Amino acid sequence: EMLRSLVGSEMCIRDSYATGLAYDIDMSHANMVLGTIAGADTVFVLLREGISRKESNEFFARFLPADIIG
Fold this sequence. Notes:
Layout: E1 7-12, H1 18-27, E2 33-38, E3 42-47, H2 53-60
Antiparallel strand pairs: 1-3, 2-3
């Protein structure tokens, strides 16, 4: 039941940057972010239900170049 109410977003980035990026996202204390999981070149960001693509793109633009956000 709970999993149906959550939205995820995944980003592939330059190798070895994922941990730092996940940390920055976590430390932003954004209400829309429930948590992150970092791999070597991928960050999974769990977002609250109801976050629009526009809202998430605006948030991720604080951390990533526009050409990566899609």
